[in-house]
Automatic annotation (TrEMBL):
Keyword hit for Ion transport: no
UniProt xrefs under PROSITE patterns: ALKALINE_PHOSPHATASE
Quaternary organization: Homodimer.
InterPro entries in the record: Alkaline_phosphatase, Alkaline_phosphatase_AS, Alkaline_phosphatase_core_sf
Name this protein carries in UniProt: Alkaline phosphatase
Length: 682
């Protein structure tokens, strides 16, 4: 059974229309086939049903309701498909396997329907040939054999894409959606991450949770150690909400490792920049929800803990401000400063290495070394400004205004920390962002919403940039550093869509992240750039129901329940807000607009917010040392691989081997280290 989309724009306001059945491909609308009757009802949706009672298409538009009784397996509006009542293949511009010219006067939705049908039909014919599958498999085998020559280059750049909540079922559904957005059946489509040569599985549990949260997992895949749920940038010795368990248990992230090695770093997210995922890159907090001091309990404030927005500005300030170092080395080779961070809220120890027989000495804090580039983009404006300060975009919305109780303007403080000879920019809308000349930008802070950024389907194309646009700008700025960069990119609202039971929002977020992955791929080379795509955790999201090939990912399953005799969507949740009972029975989804952007898919257990899933998630990798991501790994293994590939962090022995073999050293030279104590208080 296949699916034919009949846009409701073609449905008259009242009365009957005639559609002809087409039992075989290539013989649409033959005059010998019995016509179908179409009647309007009051449900305000279009529904197409097979003769055995199984639904075979999803509604489109918002017109009347179609009930078609079809003696054959197909029902198409032949006028929409570009064929006449007695048309044979090859007439009216069509061939047996080709796509006809759509008839004049169709709406864009009707033209899209025509394209989708013919694309599905052509794919179906091609796939009937066994050689299609054999040739495809042989090409895949050839590509796999080519991977025997491993890419062991040093990764100058590292890009990590994190799809928050992007479990395997979400990846598969997003793949189908991507194809269907291009008028294809969808299942055969390749996401950008599907093209990566190496795939692994990541075990996502937190140290105290079988099913994890995004904070403990972020600490794992950014800092390299597993942690308790709800905590960021700290070890498992820190207990959630207990400020006094933080000091001494801070752990550093790969962002700092990269920065210490002289690389530029950047963070791009569709959530707040102080949300769980990005905050683990720079903050150390006993509670992920301490966005500003307004969200912190008095006890934590009195004990000296700082909110995450404060740490965003002050901890990263410390990364950018280097001590002045005087040195006298007999060698012409440069020395490199490495920062060993022990307590980010109080002080640190500096390690310095010199290429010559003499050792450098610290003279005074300052800016003796050029401050490196830094990019921060996402949402979260309100946490940066004093309470009751109106938002620059939503001036009349009190909830969008500043939240800070300490009266600090963190954006002004961020600007004040930047070297005066450098060019720092704060932007809050898409127009200003895209107007920037990346060649003249040294520091960029882009905060485009008071809270999280808008869903991609709801995004204002004037005021809010897309994830792929932000990634493009970030890479242009960061790649100016000859030592390379580390960029963390989060498709964070995949997770939010699932929590709200809004699968359409979640999957469009995943497709947009896929566009961003493609954008990054066109701007970098796998020869010197390691790209890793993964998720922090999964969701209790699934789709099934024996749907036919090309079935809309948001459509109904081709059957009704054998228990309550009601239809159901292919997409369902194990729990969440989509649980609805009408007159003591499960809601009949054919009576609601389940194609709406904010439709909440049915769930088995009622919850206000759908939960995470506990199964392993996929890790996709390409570029230098990508083959080290294979098999099933603990999630905290991931940053150790990225650091190894880029010759940053602690494990650098192989980098010395690369240097001795005659290749230029990728980052800091491996030289004797001298511990230089320096107490730096913020």
């Amino acid at each position: 059974m296949a699916e034919a989309h009949v846009p409701t724009e073609a449905v008259p306001a009242s009365g009957m229309v005639s559609l002809a059945a087409s039992p075989e491909p290539g013989s649409c609308c033959g005059s010998s086939h019995s016509p179908l009757s179409l009647a309007q009802s009051s449900a305000h949706r279009a529904t197409l049903w097979h003769q055995d009672g199984h639904r075979v298409t999803e509604p489109q538009g918002a017109s009347g309701k179609l009930w078609l009784r079809n003696p054959g397996p197909w029902a198409f509006d032949c006028a929409l498909l570009g064929l006449g009542q007695d048309t044979e293949p090859g007439r009216n511009g069509a061939s047996a396997l080709g796509e006809p010219r759509p008839p004049a006067g169709l709406s864009s939705a009707q033209a899209d329907t025509t394209k989708t049908f013919w694309a599905s039909r052509a794919a179906g014919e091609k796939e009937k040939d066994p050689n299609y599958w054999r040739n495809q498999a042989q090409q895949t085998l050839k590509n796999a054999l080519g991977l025997q020559k491993l890419n062991t280059n040093v990764a100058k750049n590292v890009i990590m894409f994190l799809g928050d909540g992007m479990g395997v079922s979400t990846v598969t559904a997003a793949r189908i959606l991507k194809g269907q957005l291009h008028h294809r059946p969808g299942e055969e489509t390749k996401l950008e991450m599907d093209k990566f040569p190496f795939v692994a599985l990541s075990k996502t549990y937190n140290t105290n949770a079988q099913v994890p949260d995004s904070a403990g997992t972020a600490t794992a895949y950014l800092c390299g150690v597993k942690a308790n749920e709800g905590t960021v940038g700290v070890s498992a010795a820190t207990e959630r909400t207990r400020c006094n368990t933080t000091q001494g248990n801070e752990v550093t992230s790969i962002l700092r490792w990269a920065k210490d090695a002289g690389k530029s770093v950047g963070i791009v997210t569709t959530t707040r920049v102080n949300h769980a995922t990005p905050s683990a890159a720079y903050a150390h907090s006993a509670d992920r929800d301490w966005y500003s001091d307004n969200e912190m309990p008095p006890e934590a404030l009195s004990q000296g803990c700082k909110d995450i927005a404060y740490q965003l500005v002050h901890n990263i300030k410390d990364i950018d401000v280097w001590p002045t170092v005087s040195h006298s080395c007999s060698s012409s080779l440069p020395f490199t400063l490495l920062l060993k961070w022990t307590c980010p809220l109080s002080r640190g120890d500096w390690l310095a290495a010199c290429a010559g027989p003499r050792k450098p000495s610290v003279t005074a804090p300052g800016l003796g070394l050029q401050a490196l580039l830094l990019v921060i983009m996402g949402g979260g404006r309100k946490y940066m400004f004093p309470k009751n300060k109106s938002d620059v975009e939503y001036r009349m919305d009190e909830k969008a205004g500043g939240t800070r109780l300490d009266g600090l303007d963190l954006v002004d403080i961020w600007k004040s920390f930047k070297p005066k000879q450098k060019h720092s920019f704060f932007v809050w809308n898409r127009t200003a962002l895209l107007a920037l000349d990346p060649n003249t930008v040294d520091y960029l802070l882009g905060l485009f919403e008071p809270g999280d950024m808008q869903y991609e389907l709801n995004r204002n194309n004037v005021t809010d940039p897309s994830l792929s646009e932000m990634v493009g700008v970030a890479i242009k700025i960061l790649k100016k550093n000859p030592k390379g960069f580390f960029l963390l990119v989060e498709g964070g609202r995949i997770d939010h869509g699932h929590h709200e039971g809004k699968a359409k929002q979640a999957l469009h977020e995943a497709v947009e992240m896929d566009r961003a992955i493609g954008q990054a791929g066109t701007m970098t080379s796998p020869e010197d750039t390691l790209t890793v795509v993964t998720a922090d955790h999964s969701h209790v999201f699934t789709f099934g129901g024996y749907t036919p090939r090309g079935n809309s990912i948001f459509g109904l399953a081709p059957m009704v329940s054998d228990t309550d005799k009601k239809p159901f969507t292919a997409i369902l949740y194990g729990n969440g807000p989509g649980y609805k009972v009408v007159d003591g029975e499960r809601e009949n989804v054919s009576m609601v607009d389940y194609a709406h952007n904010n439709y909440q898919a049915q769930s088995a257990v009622p919850l206000r917010h759908e939960t995470h899933g506990g199964e392993d998630v996929a890790v996709f990798a390409k570029g230098p040392m990508a083959h080290l991501l294979h098999g099933v790994h603990e999630q905290n293994y991931i940053p150790h691989v990225m650091a190894y590939a880029a010759c940053i962090g602690a494990n650098l022995d192989h980098c010395a081997q690369v240097s001795s073999a005659g290749s230029p050293p990728p980052g800091p030279l491996l030289l004797p280290l001298v511990l230089l104590p320096l107490s730096i208080l913020f």
